[in-house]
Amino acid sequence: DKNDNWVGLANFKGRMVLLNLWATWCAPCIEELPALDRLQEAISSAHFVVIALSLDRGGLAEVGPFWSRAGLPHLHIYMDPSMTAGQMLGVRGLPTTILIDQEGFEIARYEGPADWDSENSISHLKNLSNSP
To answer: pTM for the complete prediction?
Structure first.
């Protein structure tokens, strides 16, 4: 987060997590961020959280100005300038999105951009996360 505090997936136990790995240099990543923001707005954050994890080496110096311009009010800034998350998760390219259940297990993975804010996506993820 903005204060350089370390946050792990355990911090979100009990909520379904849609973990999106992206970078400012990745055009398809940039294009899908507003849809991820709208998805977070549409689903109760008590049950579901979108984590857009930047893999930019420059950290906040790179991501901060982009984030300010992008206008993503429902998402928080998460960064991994070491890019170890991508390696640990076996990510082959960006964007990659991983759906993690309430117990912390990966239940789905999608490589490439997607329409995260479509009615179908929202409905499906609400059902999976048991969100009203």
So the answer is: 0.92
3-class DSSP string for the chain: CCCCCCCCHHHHCCCEEEEEEECCCCHHHHHHHHHHHHHHHHCCCCCEEEEEEECCCCCHHHHHHHHHHHCCCCCCCEECCCCHHHHHCCCCCCCEEEEECCCCCEEEEEECCCCCCCHHHHHHHHHHHCCC
Q: Which two tokens stand for residue 92?
A: 């082959």
Question: Is residue 83 a contact partner of residue 57, using CB atoms and an 8 Å limit?
Answer: yes
Confidence of residue 8 (pLDDT cuts 50, 70, 90): confident
Are the beta carbons of 103 and 73 closer than 8 angstroms? Answer: no
Q: How far is CA 95 from CA 30, 110, 131, in A?
A: 9, 9, 25
Distance of CA 52 to the CA centre of its chain: 3
CB atoms within 10 A of CB 25: 12
Per-residue pLDDT reduced to its tens digit, 20-53:
999 999 999 999 999 999 999 999 889 999 999 9
